[in-house]
């Protein structure tokens, strides 16, 4: 081993990943409670109305709402857990519960849509009469109520993948109500009962599209994939333009929770004293936050005189990474 005039420093800076969750908790909780209340009332109304009118579209929408209520409660539970204080065994707390809830919501939407399509298939084979007036009245009430719930959820859905899943459920209900109204009008004037299962299938296809996207986004986050809005090669190129940065390796970029992105990297710098490296860390964090919305970073600085597989210890000596070492870790 040879001595070098440099220090090894590990900086961990950025805002707490839970801060956005705490700041928006009250508003998001209120939006979820409004949606739960409205959806529960309309679900009961559509079950009764669907039974009386013999409408598959209306009954399917009511079943969809039952799943929605379960999903909304799951989202509310996940939202609460996400704000819990970290512990020694869960250093990030439960913030990823929202991603798990979104994955479950998306999966239930897919399963429900497949079931509705199956029920529609049976009605294609054996068409059934539908009482259009009841169907129209209940669907119209449902549309107004779902519109109010969707409006209450709109802002929150842009801030959280969990809330986006809940919003998609409500939006799917509103679209279902529109479809049921159209079907009711056609049945009332033309007695064409096949329109009921046709509309059910159309609604299911729309719901499936959003559900697949939700499942894909949730899975990508749980698998620590690079955020879709960020090009990792571009990030590395930008970091290399910072004064004092000579190279990068072991770069990892992932999403912690909705809107909270994290990056860790080993940064190669000149052979300088540790006390002179503060501005490099600040410049890196400023660039990542302002240009790429990456606020949670872990940067390890390394001297270019140490070869791959070695780190610089506090005595300014290159030591193999497998050997015990100590380093500063500040937040």
Structure summary:
This protein has two domains: 111 residues, Alpha-Beta Plaits (2-Layer Sandwich); 204 residues, Alpha-lytic protease prodomain-like (Up-down Bundle), CATH 1.20.1510. The chain has eight helices and seven strands.
Could you characterize what this model shows?
With 331 residues, the chain is of the alpha/beta class. The chain folds into two domains: 9-15 and 227-330, Alpha-Beta Plaits; 19-222, Up-down Bundle (Alpha-lytic protease prodomain-like), CATH 1.20.1510. The protein has eight helices and seven strands. The strands form two sheets. It has a five-stranded mixed beta sheet with strand order 2-3-4-1-7, with helices on one face. Strands 5-6 form a two-stranded antiparallel ribbon. Helix 8 (278-292) links the parallel strand 3 (260-269) and strand 4. It starts with 8 loop residues before the first strand and ends with a strand.
Features:
331 residues; alpha/beta; 2 domains; two-stranded antiparallel ribbon; disordered N terminus
Query: Low-confidence stretches at least 5 residues in length (pLDDT < 50)?
Result: 1-18, 323-331
Distance linking N and C termini: 31 Å
**Sheet with most strands:** 5 strands, mixed
Helix content: 55-70%
> What is the H level of CATH, i.e. the homologous superfamily of the largest domain?
Cation efflux protein transmembrane domain
Structural class based on helices, strands and sheet pairing: alpha/beta
Tell me the series of helices and strands, N- to C-terminal: EHHHHHHHEEHEEEE
CATH topology descriptor of the largest domain = Alpha-lytic protease prodomain-like
Number of strands: 7
The rough form would be described as elongated
How many separate structural domains?
2
| Mean of residue pLDDT values | 77
